[in-house]
Amino acid sequence: RICVITLAEAHPLLQSGKTIKSINYQISANCSRLQNKVSGKSKRGAQFLTELAPLCRISSSDGEEYTIYSCIRGRLIEVNENILSNPAILQEKPSTEGYIAVVLPKFEESKSITQGLLTQKEYEEVLLKRLNSS
Question: Pfam families in the record, alphabetically (predicted)?
């Protein structure tokens, strides 16, 4: 029932030749995802995210900056602080140790959220269509 937010395989940062310069969880002057303090079974204190809530900003060595969004509604359970000191794991192990955050959707919404997700096969088909159209 939890959602682990990672970079998609097709994300520009995971393409060859890109180097991650920095990762910043400071979203605005008074909002930092690093100040998210969660406690207890009911996850008190967790920041609530909407689908369009930014999680972090990632800068690459070529000057590009990417904002990573939550994409789901729920409580921010954890951000991966390990990628701050070692940004390379974001590229080396994007689906395991290089995750960005963990989000817990509301129980009532979790079923509708997961039903709207693509399977790995569907995702690959979308990428193929994108490649063929460009």
Answer: GCV_H (PF01597)
pLDDT above 90 (res 32):
no
The reported pTM is 0.84
Q: Could you tell me the CATH number of the domain that includes residue 63?
A: 2.40.50.100
Token code pair at residue 73: 């509604």
- Count structural domains, the chain: 1
Phi then psi for residue 66, to 5 deg, are -120, 130
Domain that holds residue 74: 3-133
pLDDT tens digit sequence for 85-118: 999 999 999 889 999 999 998 877 777 777 777 8
Q: How far is CA 92 from CA 16, 87, 123, in A?
A: 11, 9, 20
Distance CA(34)–CA(16), nearest Å, equals 29
